[in-house]
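Posted in: Structural Biology > Protein-Ligand Complexes

Title: Requesting predicted complex, 4'-deoxy-4'-aminopyridoxal-5'-phosphate in pocket

I'd be grateful if someone could produce the 3D structure tokens for the following input. Sequence and ligand are given below.
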Amino acid sequence: MDSAASTAPPRPWPLRAERPGPAGSGPSLPFAWLDGAARRRAEAGLTRRTVPRPVDDALLDLAGNDYLGLLRHPEVVRAAADAAHAWGAGTGGSRLVTGDTELHGELERELADFYGTEAALVFSSGYAANLAMVTALAAPDEGDAPLVVCDRYNHASLIDATRLAKASGARVTVFDHADPGHAAAALEGARERALLLSDTVFSVDGDLTDVAALAETARGTGVTALLLDDAHGLGVVGPGGRGTLTLAGLRGARDVVVSVTLSKSLGAQGGAVLGPRRVIRHLVETARTFVFDTGLAPASAGAALAALRVLRAEPERADAVRGRAMELSRGLRERGLTVSTPDAAVVSVIAPSRESALAWRSACLEAGVRVGCFRPPSVPDGRSRLRLTARATLDDAAVRRVLDVVSTTRPR
Ligand code: PMP
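-- Reply #1 --
Done. Output follows.
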């Protein structure tokens, strides 16, 4: 999330965790260049800051990713506490050394069952899951590395994963956003092995790519695995929030691997890769963000498992969040704004300029509604926007308030 302020000071300022006054001793010359770099970012209006969230947040929050309202659900919070009491505050090591608890296995079985895959493996974050999924499957085999074909707007974690794959010999090609035809052209060079790599729901605009067409494209080559990031699909798209594979008729597909995060609709923390058993076994043995990373904290595993069970018991939450997103989109469009038509929980509202996007977000905040804001370099010039995320638990009054605040504070 881009959370910059255009009037940021040219020098670094205290973060909340910073100690006041002089800290440490000795020359700081090796870091002197950072002041210049910070000043240049500030001059370009690209400074980022953390956004404090008070415990008793009275704001109406449409900037976070707690799509189903499970982050503070009593059963989810209790499961986190129970897991910490039973297993400790951390796992104490990699899953391969000492950190593998019953809870991890239970969560993996339930996630795989929910998505209809043979197996699943959890990671300490969705970011780590994506690094694992791509690098382990793009690794050279007896000297031969695959072609990796990526949507231009893939998430940063997939981009980083692709960079690592490239460093280990993979050839990488980018195709135009959500254009399966262009992906097919890029795959024409596929020889022995290829990977087609895409987000399902894109995080900035909330648009859903044509996953069935991507699967057909991959299958057309006979050698391509489809790797999908369903971070914004889990719990939101498909019947009962079962995700994009189910929606696209790919449940049980043997040539598709999908990653999810546990930190959005499940309100917890962590990530997972889901797919065929032999893929998951390969990740256990070779994925560096699994082998060399401390296992997912018990509290996070317990919370995610409880959240998944709430979602299974209350599948209407998925319909509710999509419905609320649609109401927000429709309402803002009726009020004359340029708004995306949401496929999932994200609604994006175009701002006239990058400066006005920031001012608009601040005005919403002052009126008690927190929204996200994207501007260059996170999005192309001229495409600065507010990003609103719907939540299953928003009531009618909250939706009306958001519509009023966002439309009345619009830049003129
Ligand atoms: N993929 C996508 C599409 C995301 O939006 C995010 C979170 N911003 C991630 C992966 C990373 O997930 P996590 O926050 O669990 O590391």
